[in-house]
Amino acid sequence: MHASIFDSEASIGQRRVIIRRNAGGVEMVERPWGFQPEQPGGRPFTVIRAEGRTFPSHRCLVPASEFRHRSRGKHYGFSLADSDWFYFAGIWRPATRDWPEAYAI
Predict the structure, then answer these.
(1) pTM metric for this prediction
(2) Residues above pLDDT 70, as percent of the chain
(3) What is the 3-state secondary structure (H, E, C) of the chain?
(4) Nearest-angstrom CA–CA distance, 86 and 65
(5) How many domains, the chain?
């Protein structure tokens, strides 16, 4: 597999590597970034606001070398000074009739 690392500026649907448990142990797979919108015609979402929520299943790790985020007109960048990699906690969802198996952070 030719793996592509997480890119916070990637378009929704771009495939990136996630690491997750399976019946045989751990696997690294590529999946599209972004979950199906909750409302028909809505925009897919890529970041889950999880304060106070738990996700007992479908957890994954998302390897990254940096993360960029825009909020209220400001730009933020995150990376490690002494290392190339870090991991986001992520959630993956199985495919549905209307949406492929995908992940969000």
Answers:
(1) 0.78
(2) 89
(3) CCCCCCCCCCCCCCEEEEEEEECCEEEEEEEEECECCCCCCCCCECCCCCCCCCCCCCEEEEEECCEEEEECCEEEEECCCCCCCEEEEEEEECCCCCCCCEEEC
(4) 6
(5) 1
Q: How far is CA 74 from the centre of its chain?
A: 22
Does residue 10 belong to any structural domain of this protein? no
Domain that holds residue 43: 15-104
Q: Is the pLDDT of residue 67 over 60?
A: yes
End-to-end CA distance of the chain: 22
Q: How many CA atoms lie within 13 A of 29 on its CB side?
A: 13
